[in-house]
Amino acid sequence: MSKFKDNFLWGGALAANQIEGAWNVGGKGLSVADVATYKPDLDVSDYAGHNKVTSQMVEEAMTTDEIQYYPKRRGIDFYHHYKEDVKLFAEMGFKTLRISIAWTRLFPTGEEVEANQEGIAYYKSLFETLKEYNIEPIVTLSHYEMPLALSVKYNGWVDRKLVDLFVNYAEVCFKEFGAYVKYWLTFNEIDSVGRHPFTTAGIIPDKCVDYSLDEAVYQALHHQYVAAAIATKKCHDMIPGSQMGCMLTKLTTYPNTCNPNDVLLSLERNLDNYSHSDIQIFGKYPTLYKQLLKNKGIVVKMEDGDEQILKEGTADYLAFSYYMSRTESADPNKEKAAGNTIMSVKNPYLASTEWGWQIDPVGLRISLIELYDRYNVPLIIVENGMGAVDQLTEDGKVHDSYRIDYLRSHIEEMAEAVEMGVDLFGYTSWAPIDLISVSTSQMSKRYGYIYVDQDDLGNGSLKRYKKDSFYWYKKLISSNGEDLD
């Protein structure tokens, strides 16, 4: 008998900016993702390098139609292949698909009075296709694809104006797509503003003239918390029975040793990680978080009523990504390991992927237990997977046993957490089909159950091929997580 609920949501997760392509089709405007360049020489020890954005880089991107070195502009052409791709997801037995809406397909600059009808028509057709196959959509409103115009004009979410602009965009989504979508998410990995401020919040560091980058990050975060809370309340009002979640990058951190200094450092990292979901689930700033800001000399500008807004717009569930754990040490000379746009101390007990991400299935069980014990709200894992170089054989096969091993080990730990009493209602692996990676904009870093014939420079037929993991995941879903062989 399966340990998972009968209506457990098995599926996959995607982001519009990494799959859709068609960057200048159907009235779409430029997003921050359209500035991201292919970085073949980015060392795995310098993942922060993927986010070194300047005003000059943005200006250059705005004056070119180049797509070879701006890979997110082409994606995998999901915009034109979505019916074919959804059919493949349905063949696997997907119960759900997590996707995002590209803000710039509806509002090209973010400030238009009326929404772009071509963009609305595209997403309605996508949702109709999902409905045809009984696949429940989980929709992220902002997944690293905010309008570039708002970044250039206002330095992104540093400006309070973006709260109203986002809420307006969200209301249009609820009005137009509410009949199709029950489960929503506001911001993808909201905690990532500090790790990559441009990608997540449209902050261009050289525009931080009258304030520091740190001040910009915390101000932008506050504006996103407020916008999320307002959008959550409006979602409930406009779509009866809807559920709005918040999303966290779960960065479970271990001390490298039992040295109290290592333990203290890992505690600080974990508290910082939790603070973002604390604000959105408990509806208030944690006391220690407020003291942290004070100690940093940072004053977050709040308007009258902001605290009440946070209190009244709390999330219904917690969604999180989990790829790896991290380890911290007070010793600066410890060997480092790469991760999900972060660096940490290498854990000698764990294996690593080709991109240096350490593989820790037990860490997922630990994360589930900690999150549920802290928040006591339903949980869903909305990203989990491994990037690898896949080889397509002459007969159109991909033998990715390494991916199956990774996913199996993590799902086994999920089952153990559920047996302990954790309320887990879904799992959407990242990603069900190959796409453009976030950090390096590579195609060769593949995650999917479905291989897409395209290389890092955009060469290829875009033909889709089923990998061995496709059939494995199909079997797993049909058994509700029981058959892991």
Automatic annotation (TrEMBL):
InterPro entries: GH, GH_1_N_CS, Glyco_hydro_1, Glyco_hydro_1_AS. One of its GO terms (molecular function) is beta-glucosidase activity. Keywords: Glycosidase, Hydrolase. The active site is at 383 (nucleophile). The keyword Hydrolase applies. It comes from Streptococcus henryi. Signal peptide: none annotated. It holds the Pfam family Glyco_hydro_1. One of its GO terms (biological process) is carbohydrate catabolic process. The keyword Glycoprotein does not apply. It comes from the Bacteria. This is 6-phospho-beta-glucosidase. One of its GO terms (cellular component) is cytosol. PANTHER family: 6-PHOSPHO-BETA-GLUCOSIDASE ASCB-RELATED, GLYCOSYL HYDROLASE. Belongs to the glycosyl hydrolase 1 family.
